[in-house]
Design a protein that fits this description.
heterotetramer, A mainly alpha, B alpha+beta, C mainly alpha, D mainly alpha, A: mainly alpha, Cytochrome C Oxidase, Chain A, 15 helices, 65% helix, globular, B: alpha+beta, Immunoglobulin-like, Cytochrome Bc1 Complex, Chain D, domain 2, five-stranded mixed β-sheet, 12 strands, binds heme-A, binds dinuclear copper ion, binds copper (II) ion
């Protein structure tokens, strides 16, 4: 159906959320979820670049088997800080706090998140935690690994464990508050007619994520608190020399940190559901199954943490239970994969950059997830744990999965967020580079892992050098690919073409307001009469109603 | 043996159960391919066949299919159960050290591995083992977590301060293999490792003879038991025996005053020496003094070895060249008694 | 959801006082029961069990009446239960390790 | 916006359509927050569970050193404050300003009482060297007046309320065993543990066959109760005690802050039958903190009390 012309908003609203006040104060004290999202975008990206620099350092060091670029002490800090920054300050907030914050209210037709002040608070908490951590890193950093295993972290490490721990602790509350806000918003702020089963899947995914955030994050907060007190007071609850138990720490840590990997992947899965459906211009296959599989992942994700502890001295019986449940939790992910694939069937698939990222996600997450099964299988885990196989597994799911999902999402929504189109050409190049570079970096690591190269090694056996060189070379390509968006997206703000309200011609509510949206999102309270991803006439897509103004009054 | 003239793509296979792990690995690769190829193929096929032919077209709607959903939930589930079962079986085989294994004691410390053979040979960061013999490592650490990892044997286990963990293997190929510490332990984690040398049993014997300076642990233990620590004053046997009879005790089940029982394993003997009154054996008074602080870790291991070597009816003599006591050895990890359960609150 | 606060009365002052009474009695009973040795009279752990049972009862009253959950939407009910459910998960799955671990410890 | 010029109820925030939606949002938000709190304390309870199930006797001994009377008193104090809080909400719904103000003040008074009692408990632990962190106990040099101070403090210990009779027995017993010279020097403020009841409890338990061999190995050396080992375990108890009650106390302080704010708002007569959700959700928080204490009390203060009461084996 041709509806190009009618879908343009003829005159732009005079004030959008970006032009509504220019003073520093109007940003720092804003309650507008969109401005908060933009501030998150800037900070989280900065953290990503820092984490990426650490990654580059790791790969440089690993070019040679000896620890020549860095001493092992420095190397230990580098990978620890890489892990901590990437996980706590980049990957966990990235999609919920940027894309979720910006689009969740838009997608459900709300004026804002339910608790805007709490939203701002969560940003500030994130900043405080981040600054504290950065400060600690400048003072000398930490070398415990991002997992802070005891008793090394409590008794033996003489680095800034306390400060970084505190940073992570504080940052945890930012994540909790974001989750809390999402839950409330989804429950109470849906526009008339926006029933649960009309919610876009991105909203479902964020909702499931929010559940995990609320139920899991407090546990890591208390764990880190215990660790800190233990470090100062040396009471011994994690120290076997005086009656404690280091494994208890691991239980508490992974109780959060396994669900946390679903905090990282679920929102990306939400983005992918959006992209796949919208860029094949077809209703998603098995909507309910995707929605419920998100919830299933959120719930079952809490029952498998022991799979990180198969060789740690956990009991055999516990190992069996955790291994079994690990297999169970893989099934909902499988359901999603199949449904996405089926959505392409008989669609009208376009190859815009966001879709390229989405397709890349499917391939890479597939590999990452399947190798997760290798690790969940106890017999294999014994050989593979703490080797580069693990490193490869989690980069496949975290970078190949979440980061690609995020990149897809940010391209997809960029016109809406900024009112500008990015350069499609460069975006495609970057997507390709990332995909190729990524595989070059991390595929050899599976082989390295099975060969027995332990992780967190500053120096390694000489015969493994060739594969490591491949990996480092790939990292260069990957780094270039990931850095390019930073450049061309920023450039697009100045040189980019002005974006229409609905550049992709999609039915979602967020596309039915101006780009960039006005402060209160919609000029009139929208009323939803169509299912999610319903292309076609029923949803009013090819009528005037596409414009925010024409939305029916509540 | 690995050389650095070529790029290895697959690790050496040098233990009796390595093939199991490798087969499991191949099975998983197979499953992965079986899923990945069709999915990727379908993605490519659909993406190309149904590529956009008209800007912003509205293709026909397809809602979904419950049959399909059920199919693609059940099939992966069933397959994943085979993965689970396979993994569990392989894990079981690795978990329980077979009886009459040759025992080697391992102490990890930042950043080195200390090994002691049954014959008293000590090694640091190098481990010599005979081919074709079941070897059991009884391990602990002096400081933080470490992890013994021998890729060629496909086995690995954390060592935890405050307790013994075990690991076993049966080397099948003569050669020199990597030994790593696989649990992050601080500054020199990547330097904490060395080599495992697998030798023909003959050569191993020679090696032991050549380098074997000191006494065997059993001998050291005997010396301690008889003379240095005076255990014999109570445990010597005969009529004046005030202490429990230790001959042949290893591997049996003992009952305690006030109920409860335990299987006698390394752990138990160790506790009995450090902490005798913790578990008083039925029929005795809690008179045995604690030797906590008087014996070192190594002396303890020697005492344990000695007590293990005592067989019923054999006068406490001691040394045999093969230090493999034929008593069933209980795995310290899996001893059945629950430590924490019943209590009085 | 909006109809939840049409009925402002809830249980009224006598109701609140009644709940209060129950709580006070519960506290005193907990206290007294702790002094009798149920462990040897009934079974080990009985004391703790009773104490916890009373605590649960008290909590239920506070949650239902003081916190008005009795009159709240299903969502609130669910979240009240979910917190405890998840805590139970944490307990159960941690203890399943500890209780099956065996005696592989020594105290140095 | 449609209702810009309409009647705009006080306290309605811009993102909401009406008071109902706002009320629902804050209620759901508060409950989600409470779930978060449950998990926060849940981590501590897990640690508690793990260690208590492994060292029940040390926990009982440590617990016997808490003042169950004060603990019980505090429970009652909190329950009363919960009642006043519930009534505050009740009157807020009725829009009765004076009743609200009085009840909020009462709630605050009881909350403060709780903290004051807690302060006395903590300082008691401080004087007895029972704070598990080195340097945080009273520092006494041998033979100094400090010693005197400690002694006089010691004679003032409020013994557990329930067992006045038996306790005094225990006390004389203990007193006769404690030689006058035994003033414990503690120059570095270390954790101290001199409790004969610990011995008693463990011996009782051992006689009763309650100790698993493993657990005994945690306490015994040489057939004798080993104070060092036992102390380590008791120390873990006190660690958990301090972290749990400390965090609970922190929640009380935050609660008092909220109450102060509520008081100001109520004073200004902000709340009415239409708009009282701040009172309600603050109440939820207050009750939650109360509930945590309802569990902490039996779990921390009442372990193995009957050993003290002489009802043991
Ligand atoms: C985004 C993050 C993320 C995600 C989504 C996952 C997903 C999964 N992970 Fe991963 N994992 C990590 C991040 C993540 N992981 C990290 C960071 C670590 C290391 C931490 C550290 O130690 O530093 C780790 C470590 C880790 C371990 C511990 C290894 C060890 O230390 O010994 C294990 C073990 O079971 C595991 C398993 C799994 C499984 C089974 C999944 C599953 O959810 C995957 C499910 C997906 C699929 C299965 C693919 C799609 C399905 C099909 C195509 C159908 C076919 C399927 C079947 C036949 C079932 N992971
Ligand atoms: C979100 C999570 C995340 C992300 C995105 C990444 C991204 C990358 N990671 Fe990381 N990684 C972890 C999470 C992540 N990692 C974790 C949790 C660990 C475990 C830590 C531990 O063991 O404790 C780990 C560990 C880890 C190791 C193992 C270290 C060891 O065990 O010894 C390696 C080694 O290759 C590695 C490499 C990389 C690479 C090459 C990338 C690349 O994808 C990065 C690509 C991005 C960039 C390169 C940045 C882009 C831009 C620039 C660099 C431009 C520079 C700018 C200027 C010069 C102005 N990572
Ligand atoms: Cu020892 Cu790593
Ligand atoms: Cu996991």
């Amino acid at each position: 159906m041709q509806n190009v012309d009618v879908m343009n908003i003829s005159e732009e609203p005079k004030v959008n959320y970006l032009t509504n006040g220019f003073s520093l104060k109007s940003w720092l004290l804003t309650k507008d979820h969109k401005r908060i999202a933009i501030m998150y975008l800037i900070t989280v990206s900065a953290f990503f670049l820092i984490g990426g620099l650490y990654a580059a350092t790791i790969r440089l060091e690993l070019l040679t088997p000896q620890s020549d670029l860095l001493e092992s002490g420095q190397y230990n800090r580098v990978f620890t800080q890489h892990g901590i920054i990437m996980v706590f300050f980049f990957l966990i907030p990235v999609i919920p706090a940027i894309l979720g914050n910006f689009f969740l209210p838009l997608m459900i037709g709300a004026k804002d998140l339910a608790l805007p002040r709490i939203n701002l608070l969560s940003l500030y908490i994130y900043w405080v935690g981040g600054i504290l951590t950065l400060w600690a890193l400048m003072q000398g950093g930490v070398d415990t690994g991002w997992t802070f295993y005891t008793p090394y972290s409590t008794t033996f490490s003489n680095t800034y464990v306390m400060a970084v721990g505190l940073g992570v602790f504080i940052n945890g509350f930012s994540s909790i508050l974001t989750g809390l806000n999402f839950i409330v918003t989804v429950h109470t702020m849906r526009a008339p007619g926006m029933t649960w089963f009309r919610l876009p899947l991105f909203v479902w995914a964020n909702y499931a994520t929010a559940l995990v955030m609320i139920l899991g994050t407090p546990v890591v907060a208390i764990t880190i608190l215990l660790l800190a007190i233990e470090r100062v007071g040396h009471v011994g609850i994690f120290d076997p020399a005086i009656g404690g138990d280091p494994i208890l720490y691991q239980h508490l840590f992974w109780f959060y940190s396994h669900p946390a990997v679903y905090i990282m992947i679920l929102p990306a899965m939400g983005v992918i559901s959006e992209l796949i459906s919208n860029f094949s211009r077809k209703k998603i296959f098995g909507y309910e199954f995707i929605a419920f599989s998100s919830l299933a992942i959120a719930v079952f994700g809490f029952l498998v943490w022991g799979h990180h502890m198969f060789v740690s001295g956990q009991s055999l019986y516990a190992g069996l239970v955790f291994s079994f449940l690990t297999m169970v939790v893989a099934v909902p992910s499988a359901i999603k994969m199949f449904n996405w694939t089926a959505t392409l069937y008989k669609g009208s698939v376009s190859y815009d950059a966001p879709m390229l990222y989405a397709l890349g996600f499917m391939g890479l997450f597939l590999i990452g997830g399947l190798t997760g099964l290798f690790l969940g299988s106890m017999g294999l885990n014994v050989h593979l744990t703490d080797t580069y196989f693990i490193v490869a597994h989690f980069h496949y799911v975290m970078v190949g999965g979440t980061v690609l999902g995020y990149l897809g999402g940010i391209h997809y929504w960029w016109p809406k967020m900024t009112g500008r189109m990015y350069s499609e050409f460069w975006a495609k190049i970057s997507a390709m580079l990332v995909f190729v570079g990524f595989n070059l970096t991390f595929f050899p690591q599976f082989v390295l892992g099975y060969l027995g190269m332990p992780r967190r090694y500053a120096s390694y056996a000489e015969e493994l050098q060739v594969l490591n060189i491949f990996s480092s070379a790939g990292a260069a390509v990957l780094g270039t690919g990931m850095f390019m968006p930073v450049v061309y997206l920023i450039l697009s703000l100045v040189f980019g073409q002005k974006a229409e309200a609905n550049p992709w011609h999609l039915p979602g509510l967020e596309w039915r307001t101006a780009s960039p949206p006005p402060t209160e999102n919609f000029e009139k309270m929208p009323v939803v009469t169509w299912e999610a991803y319903e292309f076609g006439e029923d949803n009013g897509l090819d009528h005037e109603a596409v414009r925010g103004k024409e939305l029916v009054e509540a | 043996m690995q050389s650095n003239s070529w790029v290895p793509l697959f690790p050496d296979q040098a233990s009796s159960f390595a093939w199991q792990i490798d087969y499991l690995y191949f099975y998983l690769i197979l499953i992965s391919i079986a899923f990945a190829i069709p999915i990727v193929a379908a993605i490519f096929f659909f993406a190309i066949k149904y590529r956009e032919k008209e800007k912003f077209a509205t293709p026909e709607e397809i809602h979904g299919s419950t049959t399909l959903e059920i199919a693609w939930s059940i099939i992966p589930f069933v397959l994943s159960m085979t993965i689970f079962l396979g993994g569990a079986i392989v894990y079981f085989n690795q978990y329980r050290p077979p009886e009459n294994s040759m025992e080697i004691f391992v102490v990890g410390k930042q950043w080195m591995w200390k090994f002691q053979h049954g014959t008293g040979q000590r090694e640091i960061n190098e481990l010599h083992v005979p081919k074709g013999v079941n070897v059991k490592l009884t391990m602990t650490t002096e400081d933080v977590l470490h992890d013994v990892f021998i890729p060629a044997f496909r086995t690995k286990a954390d060592v935890v301060p405050g307790r013994y963990t075990t690991l076993w293997f049966n080397a099948t190929e003569v050669g020199k293999y990597h030994l790593y510490c696989a649990e992050y332990c601080g500054l020199n984690h990547s330097g904490m490792g060395g080599w495992v040398y697998v030798m023909e049993p003959k050569d191993f014997e020679n090696w032991l003879a050549g380098g074997g300076t000191g006494q065997t642990p059993t001998e050291i233990g005997k010396d301690l038991f008889m003379n240095k620590l005076g255990c014999a004053s109570c445990h010597a046997g005969g009529q004046n025996q005030r202490g429990a009879k230790l001959e042949g005790i290893f591997g049996t089940e003992v009952k305690f005053v006030g109920g409860g029982s335990a299987k006698v394993d390394e752990e138990y003997i160790r506790n009995s020496i450090l902490n005798p009154s913790g578990q008083v054996v039925e029929g005795f008074q809690p008179i045995m003094p604690s030797f906590k602080g008087q014996v070192t870790e190594e002396q303890l291991l020697a005492l344990v070895a000695y007590i293990k070597s005592l067989t019923p009816n054999s006068a406490p003599t001691g040394t045999t060249s093969t230090p493999a006591p034929s008593t069933p050895s209980a795995n310290a990890n899996t001893a059945t008694k629950s430590a924490a359960a019943n209590s009085n609150k | 959801m909006t109809e939840t606060h049409t009925d402002n009365e809830h249980i009224g002052i006598p109701g609140y006082l009644g709940v209060f009474g129950i709580l006070v009695v519960g506290t005193i009973v907990t206290y007294l029961v702790a002094l009798t040795d149920l462990d040897s009279k009934l079974f080990p752990g009985a004391n703790t069990l009773v104490a916890l049972a009373i605590a649960f009862t008290k909590m239920t009253f506070v949650v239902l009446f003081f916190m008005h959950v009795r009159w709240q939407t299903r969502l609130v009910w669910i979240s009240a239960v979910a917190g405890f459910f998840w805590m139970a998960i944490m307990f159960a799955y941690t203890m399943q390790d500890y209780l099956t671990r065996g005696t592989g410890y020594f105290t140095p | 916006m449609s209702h810009e010029h309409d009647y705009h109820p006080p306290g309605l925030q811009h993102q909401f359509e009406d008071m109902g939606q706002q009320q629902d949002s804050v209620t759901v938000g508060m409950w989600a927050f409470l779930v978060q709190e449950i998990m926060f304390f849940g981590g501590l309870f897990t640690a508690y569970l793990v260690f208590r199930s492994r060292y029940p006797m040390a926990f009982a001994a440590g617990s016997n050193h808490l003042d169950a009377f004060l603990g019980g008193l505090n429970t009652l104090v909190l329950i009363v404050s919960s009642l006043t809080m519930a009534l505050t909400v009740y009157y807020a719904q009725k829009g009765k300003r004076n009743a609200q103000v009085i009840l909020i003040i009462l709630t605050m008074i009881f909350g403060t009482t709780f903290l004051v009692v807690k302060y006395f408990e903590y300082s008691d632990k401080y004087h007895h060297g029972l704070v598990p962190f080195n340097g945080l106990n009273q520092k006494i040099k041998k033979g100094h007046e400090g010693g005197e101070a400690e002694k006089s403090e010691k004679s003032q210990i409020v013994l557990p309320f329930e067992t006045k009779a038996e306790a005094s027995e225990t006390k004389t017993e203990a007193g006769s065993e404690t030689k006058p010279a035994e003033v414990h020097a503690n120059p570095r403020g270390e954790f101290q543990w001199h409790d004969e009841n610990g011995v008693k409890i463990v011996h009782e338990a051992k006689k009763g066959g309650y100790l698993t061999p493993y657990e005994q190995s945690g306490y015994y050396t040489n057939g004798e109760y080993d104070n060092d080992k036992f102390t380590q375990k008791v120390r873990i108890f006190f660690y958990i005690y301090f972290v749990m009650t400390g965090l609970h106390g922190l929640h009380m302080v935050v609660g008092l802050g909220i109450m102060t704010w509520l008081l100001v708002m109520a004073w200004r007569g902000t709340y009415s039958a239409e708009y009282y959700s701040p009172v309600e959700i603050s109440g939820l928080y207050w009750h939650f903190v109360d509930i945590v204490w309802i569990f902490l009390f039996p779990l921390l203060y009442l372990l193995g009390r009957h050993f003290l009461a002489g009802g043991g084996h």
